[in-house]
Amino acid sequence: MTQSTDIYNDFKHKKISTLFWQYALPAIIGTIVNTLYNIIDGVFIGHWIGREALSAAGLILPVMNLAAAIGMLVGIGSASRISIFLGRNQTDEAEKVAGTSFMLTTLLSGSVLFLLLYFIDPVLHFVGSSPENHVYAKEFLEIFLPGSIFLTLTFNYNNMMRASGYPFKAMVTMFISVIANIILAPIFIIGLGWGMHGAAFATTLSMFISFLFVMQHFLNKNSTIKLRTHNLTLNPQMVKAILSIGMSPFAMQIAASIVVVFINWQLNTYSPLAGISGDDTIAAYSNANRLVTLIIMIVIGINQGMQPIIGYNYGAKNYSRVKNTFFYAVKVATVITSLGFLLGFFMPETLVKAFSADEDLIRFSAIALRYMTLAFVFVGFQMVTTSFFQCIGMAKISIILSLSRQILILLPTLYIAPHFLGLHGVWYSMPIADILSTGAAYLALYWYFQSIKTRHFPKAQISNKSKP
Fold first, then answer.
1. What are the distances in angstroms from CA 188 to CA 84, 86, 140, 183?
2. Which of 65, 129, 171, 466 is paired with 260 by a 20 to 30 Å CA distance?
3. What Cα–Cα distance (Å) separates residue 264 from each residue in 351, 375, 414?
4. Alpha helices, DSSP H only, in 189-235?
5. Of 169, 238, 172, 173, nearest to 207 (Cα)?
6. CA-based diameter of the chain, in Å?
7. Residues 30, 35, 38, 39: is their CA dihedral positive or negative?
8. CA dist., res. 3 & res. 67, Å (int)
9. Cβ distance 69 to 250 under 8 Å?
10. Distances from the Cα of 90 to the Cαs of 83, 160, 304, 440, in angstroms?
11. CA neighbor of 196 nearest in space, from 357, 53, 97, 10
């Protein structure tokens, strides 16, 4: 029996909880490791470069997220399609996805990153840079942006590696990257004294090392799916299939970037009215957001672990396993986000001290973290539900749910609440959006399962079973 046959049998028959952790645990570790990039940079920047540089790191987060968004657009869409094709035993089609994905990622990343570099000063002014932090932000992006194409390709093929039955290897890929960053960051930032340039060099070189490892897997003749030269084309059918699924996480990431920009604008506007520098509250938000992102990325890891199981069984029409996997993922995600609430609400000062020794910045960061995790208990359900619709190919619903929190709810709340509550209104907007978007996810899920029940148990069948 081949390795790929073993993998497919696991998807069909293995106990859901065991199979879930087999895929989710490496994905969770991988996403945590990936998030450590940002945390490691924050620690070294905050302690060895300075307060303005930490504020700059917060400002450029939306720009960095754009590179990650392209990776999600192509990578998650490709992984979802590969899972479905493998569930149908269509390996050739899965390999066409892998080839198209490489070309599509390179084209999109290259185009966007060139434009960002060309308009780097206007972009930084748009996201809210001040004269004090502008130079630090520019120093980082000048190095990071050209190298971020390796980030998008690594993210892309790491997802496909996991979807094709190699969760442990996908985890190792991310470990290689973060270990390289842990080693290189102090060398470039402290040892060579390169400041923000050093932080960017360490991050870029780490991504390149990870890229080499993940591509070696897809060029290996023993892999379940392989990257073949004749598939390196922009196959229109595959491009459409990839983008239709990947559009949901892409939209979520773009929306998150827009929200961060708007939050920075509002912090710059309302912080002085509270007697605080806008740069200080932006740095505080950046610190709190790093920790919140760590919890969010764990849930994303849960979603990534859930995705190949649901994708395969949905393709194979094993709907009971699809449903059981989803509800198990919801339980795990809710436990994680509840833990995030407890840590963020009851011990925020202890957590944010990792980024700075400045007492005022610690206090501001703790306030931000407490507000941002206030309704975190609900976030796990909302995120898993959104990912579930993406996994089964219902991209439109997934996109609507993705946008409901960020664009339809959070942006208007961020605009209105500060008019009445000042700076506190900026912070309160986030838990309000968490609660309302969870309600939207519940309604969508209720509609879906009611429609499934109707299709599988029509009224005539139910009435016949009820007769004595």
1. 44, 44, 13, 9
2. 171
3. 22, 21, 11
4. 195-218
5. 173
6. 84
7. negative
8. 34
9. yes
10. 10, 15, 21, 35
11. 53
| pTM of model > 0.90 | no
C-alpha distance across the termini of the chain, in Å: 48
Cα 32 to Cα 27, 36, 76: the distances in Å are 8, 6, 17
Integer Cα distance of 23 and 11 in angstroms: 11
Q: Rounded to 5, what percent of the chain is helix, strand, coil?
A: 85, 0, 15
Question: Which token pair is 52?
Answer: 């303005």
Q: Residue type at 169? A: K
Give the residue carrying structure tokens 């269509």. 90
Full DSSP string of 62-117: HHHHHHHHHHHHHHHHHHHHHHHHHHTT-HHHHHHHHHHHHHHHHHHHHHHHHHHH
CA angle 336, 338, 339 (to 5 degrees): 65
CB 189 within 8 A of CB 46: no
Q: Which of 360, 291, 41, 295 is nearest to 186 (CA)?
A: 41
Q: Which of 48, 218, 214, 68 lies closest to 144 in space, CA to CA? A: 68
